């Protein structure tokens, strides 16, 4: 557990590279720890390692499909990259489990608007 502690310590001091190193050591010790992958994914995001962060979030979903935040993070990455159809798929997966999140519905509506999916965007605007 010392590795998890040191990872959190370095993360709180904005030493993301060091934090990622400790988090990776932790994941070698506990490879089925979805929380560890979520934390490493957030660190990777801060380090602008978007492809690696997407891999981490895919692992989270594989380990625990009910972790809704992983779908949102993936969708936001896709949206920022202009991959709106991919973002829509992730938002729709999230909405199928958590249908009442107003912010995600707004994000989804914006993606429908960007892709000109008229029938679906009418639901949001």
From TrEMBL:
<feature type="repeat" description="TPR">
    <location>
        <begin position="34"/>
        <end position="67"/>
    </location>
</feature>
<feature type="repeat" description="TPR">
    <location>
        <begin position="68"/>
        <end position="101"/>
    </location>
</feature>
<keyword id="KW-0802">TPR repeat</keyword>
<dbReference type="InterPro" id="IPR019734">
    <property type="entry name" value="TPR_rpt"/>
</dbReference>
<dbReference type="InterPro" id="IPR011990">
    <property type="entry name" value="TPR-like_helical_dom_sf"/>
</dbReference>
<dbReference type="Pfam" id="PF13181">
    <property type="entry name" value="TPR_8"/>
</dbReference>
<keyword id="KW-0677">Repeat</keyword>
<dbReference type="Pfam" id="PF13428">
    <property type="entry name" value="TPR_14"/>
</dbReference>
<protein>
    <submittedName>
        <fullName>Uncharacterized protein</fullName>
    </submittedName>
</protein>
<dbReference type="InterPro" id="IPR050498">
    <property type="entry name" value="Ycf3"/>
</dbReference>
């Amino acid at each position: 557990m010392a590795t998890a502690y040191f990872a959190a310590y370095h993360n709180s001091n904005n030493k993301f590279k060091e934090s990622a190193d400790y988090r990776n050591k932790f994941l070698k010790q506990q490879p089925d720890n979805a929380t560890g992958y979520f934390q490493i994914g957030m660190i990777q995001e801060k380090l602008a390692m978007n492809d690696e962060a997407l891999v981490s979030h895919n692992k989270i979903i594989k380990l625990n499909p009910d972790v809704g935040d992983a779908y949102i993070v993936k969708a936001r990455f896709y949206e920022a990259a202009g991959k709106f159809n991919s973002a829509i798929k992730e938002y729709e997966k999230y909405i199928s489990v958590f249908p009442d999140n107003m912010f995600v519905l707004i994000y989804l509506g914006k993606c429908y608007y960007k892709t000109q999916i008229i029938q679906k965007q009418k639901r949001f605007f």
